[in-house]
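Dear colleague,

Following up on yesterday's call, I've attached the two folding results inline so they're easy to grep. Please treat them as preliminary; we haven't cross-checked anything against experimental data yet. The first protein's sequence and structure tokens come first.
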Amino acid sequence: MAEILLITSAQFERQPMVLYNPPLSLEGKRNLLENIKPKIPKYFPSPKNVLCGTGERHFQTAEILGLKPTYCDPIFGCGDLIKNDEIILSGNRKMLPRLYLSITECFNDGLAWILKELLKENGDKIIVIDPFITRELNVEPEFATIYEYTSAGIRKV
């Protein structure tokens, strides 16, 4: 069974006036509902630890999948601004606690360091991330994809 599921956000709309924090496209939403949502209960029937990036597309991905983020952090994908060290503004949504991360280690080792630290904690986790961040794990980016991350490594589900 997975210790961490990484779920990449779906395809987003390319809008001329929205460059930084675009919403999901209809195709992306459909892809999540048809191909990703049915797979989650196989790994985590009732996930409690859900982390995500700070972009609208990350929150939309979580909502469509029936997940309720408990923490968010820009290391998983950016979109909104940090209000202070502990809170992220998440568009028109309520504020969530920021996952406390050591800045030094994050910049030195990035996502791989964070995932190793999260594996040390009890409980399974789902993390909604930006597809392009998977490059830090030597994985080619793909929209709306699930990866299982364990101490043995990462694999596409």
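Below is the second protein, in the same order (sequence, then structure):
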Amino acid sequence: MGSPPPSLPVVTLNCAMISIAKGIIIFLFIALGIFYVTGFLSLPNSIISKDPPSQLPSNVTQEIDNIRSDNSSYISRWEANKTEQTVMIYLNCTQWMKKNKIPDMVIDNWTIRLILDPEIDETYTNITEKFIPEWSRAHPGQVIGYVDAHACNRKMWVTIFNISRENENSKEFIDGWQIIFVRAT
């Protein structure tokens, strides 16, 4: 009678190994979650890009390339969903902007939907309603004449009466837009 069975330390070692394995698994799930949320890892059925990937049917890729090469349409970004077989193309501007609805296209059972990028309007509004008035307050005596914007190229010209030499042709960049200060004539 007397001594404990020799398998007791082995059981303790197995419990410790199980605890370590659980910790590693939990760490991996947290790391994958962080990678997914930050965008380092994306689901295979969702593609967000500026260039068409090779995973799309060639006819769909060709149509995206045709839209990209059209001098009257500017793509800011696009996304594809393989599961729903849809491609959303976000345009800065297009010849179709004057129409109320831009028609969808269906190619090889894929729907290509062209929409105006809502970020363009938000940025334009932010620049014209916040940045330019703040600039005007910071530069008294330099009176803003008018603003001319070209959404397709994301450029905005702000004409200034009595513009100082250091501000003439100066440029600011806000959310991908180039703001150029020029002398009013």
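For the second protein, one point worth flagging: The CA atoms of residues 4 and 10 lie 12 Å apart.

Best wishes,
A.L.
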